[in-house]
Write a structure and sequence with these properties.
The chain is mainly alpha-helical. Helices cover 78% and strands 0% of the residues.
Length: 89
């Protein structure tokens, strides 16, 4: 919920800034109409950057991998004792 409020407040601030630029004619009209496109492209680049940083900093969990392999071996043993053929996987 906090992210929704943050995004909506950012959209409201950018919209207010855009309307102000349209009314004040500080920036030429042809550039002002492109601001929403620049905003969407910048938001997309920011999203890709955050995903990339999240992937680079993704923690590895060797303890969890060992526990998962143990659970898999236990499940295979349980299934084979109950007569279910699981093959060589």
């Amino acid at each position: 919920m906090k992210h929704v409020v943050k995004i909506l407040s950012l959209v409201a601030a950018v919209s207010a800034f855009w309307i102000t630029l349209l009314q004040a004619a500080i920036v030429p009209q042809s550039f002002t109409w492109l601001l929403p496109i620049y905003f969407v492209v910048s938001l997309g680049c920011y999203g890709l950057l955050m995903v990339g940083i999240g992937i680079m900093q993704f923690p590895t969990c060797p303890q969890e991998a060992v526990l998962l392999n143990h659970d898999i071996a236990e499940a295979k043993d349980f299934l084979s004792t109950n007569g279910i053929d699981i093959g060589t996987y």
